[in-house]
Please model this.
Amino acid sequence: MALSVDQIKASYPLPNYQFRVELYPYIGSIAAMISVTAFSHDTWSFSEVSGLDSSFDHQVYRDGLSFMLGVELLRGIRQPVTLTLRRGMVRDRKQLGAWMQTQGLPWSNVERKKNLRIVQVDELGNPLIAWTVIGAMPVKLHGPNFKASDNEVAIESIELVAERLDVDYNP
Model:
């Protein structure tokens, strides 16, 4: 028995090559968690996004009865998110370098930070899953590796560190 198109869409894994990266202004960690999409955004193209990981430290709690009942594990502090965005270099596209060079105030990183939304889309461009990165700030810019004997595309990448990562399965 053949599957219908709707059954195939519901049961097959999603392709990872259809996504877009949206950049929103950073207005502070509390306000940004309310609704990132309420602001206008820029859409940047990347060939690869890696590091969509969210993790917490753990703590081991021992009390007086731990010798009998065992220890209790507690969730600790959220770890910063480290993302890497890669793309081919194109003339007159200077966004990554400009973002890296943003000065800002000496005591504040607000001007450097942005909120990102990585959206996995279907073949029509409809959002399927969205990862929202709050307070992303560039920490490293990688240029391409030049080698005269190769005929490869020049790839630039930027490494970001962020405050948190949220996943929305129904964007």
Residues 5-11 form the longest helix (7 residues). DSSP finds four helices and ten strands in the chain.
